[in-house]
Every structure is written in structure tokens, then in C-alpha cells.
Amino acid sequence: MKNSGEYVTLNVKDGTEMRAYVARPSSGDGPFPGLLIFQEAFGVNSHIRDLAHRFAAEGYVCIAPELFHRTAPGFEGDYNNFPAIAPHMQALTEEGLLADAVAAYEWLIAQSDVRTGAIAGTGYCMGGRIAFLANTALPLKAAVSYYGGRIVPDLVKKTAQLHAPMLFFWGGLDKHIPAEHVQEVVAALKKEGRPHVSVEISYADHGFFNDQRTAYHPQAAKEAWALTLAFLKNKLA
Q: Is 206 considered catalytic here?
């Protein structure tokens, strides 16, 4: 039996409303750990919803907030039309993203089937950066960032504020995130003594985990998925 999925509407502290996709385990006694899933720039599309179901099948109550809700509620972008996506990305603010993350986190901890002390976050591309940002503001137990762009220079100065251990995935073929940015992130983590695992997959490109993108790499995705599950299990035990 497939785990259940639904949309919920959250009230954000700036007075806006935000839709989010929720998936719950279809079996098990619970309460379950909770997982924030932060989208790519293409919205909470079928790929992100599928991820929510995959994580739910592993025993997580998942919520994927629609981060473009201020400019394009319900937005699902075309992978081949990035110019149509750019205005929505440019309209994002750190303050707004934090408010969105808080709203999703508060929804999770209010659920009777969620273990309130066992909340993690994961994000992909744009969402990989937001997983880092959320970890600076929320009492997460773990966070996973897949090829998160603009951590340098935007967020690296906040490294000392990270609450939870982080797992990072980078593609060795990624032309969007320079190698020196990856090195700067790792150097900041070491300097601040923040627990982390940083994995560069030499044969993977940006977006390697998304099976709807041309950069999808099945082997790299399978390996990253296994490590992600192990990391979350260990940190949320």
C-alpha cells in the first residue's frame, strides 16, 4: 500500500499562506521522525512529491513547503525554461525563507504522529542551500544538502549557527558550484567545529539525484540515497 499524500495550507508569520505537500508512512505504530523537504527551483513538482513518498516509505512524516508561494502559488517549472523560473528565485529573501521553514517545522511538531525531538531537513539544488539556512535557525537533529548553490558567499558566514550535523553531496562534474566554493564550505565547517560529512561524487553532475533531469546519474543517486538514509537514521535514533 502506498503511503498517503495530501496538501495542507500553512499560515506564515508574514501574513501569507503557503501550501505544502505532506506524505506519511502507510504502516507502523509511530510516532515517526519528521522531515522537511526543500524543493529545487522547479517547485514542489512530481519529483519532490515522489521523494516525499520515498522518505515516508522509510518511516518519515514529510512536508515539502511551496517556497514560491508569494509570487507563484502552486508553481511547477519546466526543466528546459529556466528564464521563467528566475524571477521567482530572485524574489526569495532570507527572511521569507526562514519564515517558511519555521511554518513547516511548527506544522510537523504539532502532529500527533511525529516525534517532536526528531526533526531533520533535506534539500536539493536551491533547496540544498535552504536546508543549510534552516539548520541555522531550527533545532534540527540532522540536515542534508544536495548540491546546494550559493552557500558561498550568502550563508557560509552563518556556519557557526548550525544546530545539527550536516551531510553534503557535491557533483565532481558540477559547473554551477565551483570547487573553491565547496572547499570554502568545508573549511568553514572545520573552523567552527561543526559536525559534517562532505561527499563529492566525481562522476556526478549538478542535479544528479533527480530522475527527471538530463543530469540524472542512477548509480550516484542510488549511492547518495543509501548514505542519506543511514545518516538520518543514525542522527534521529
A: yes
Identify the band that residue 19 occupies on the pLDDT scale cut at 50, 70 and 90: very high
Residue 125 a catalytic site member: yes
Catalytic one among 125, 181, 205, 217? 125
Please tell me which residue in 53, 62, 174, 196 is annotated as part of the active site.
Answer: 174
Q: What are the distances in angstroms from CA 185 to CA 6, 34, 127, 171, 224?
A: 36, 26, 16, 14, 19
Q: Which of 47, 69, 206, 217 is catalytic?
A: 206
Pair 82, 89: CB distance under 8 Å: no
DSSP notation for 137-151: HS--SEEEEES-TTI
Is the predicted pLDDT of residue 1 greater than 70, yes or no? Answer: no
The answer to whether residue 62 is catalytic is no
**pLDDT tens digit string along 200-237?**
999 999 999 999 999 999 999 999 999 999 999 999 99
| pLDDT, tens only, 118-169 | 999 999 999 999 999 999 999 999 999 999 999 999 999 999 999 999 999 9
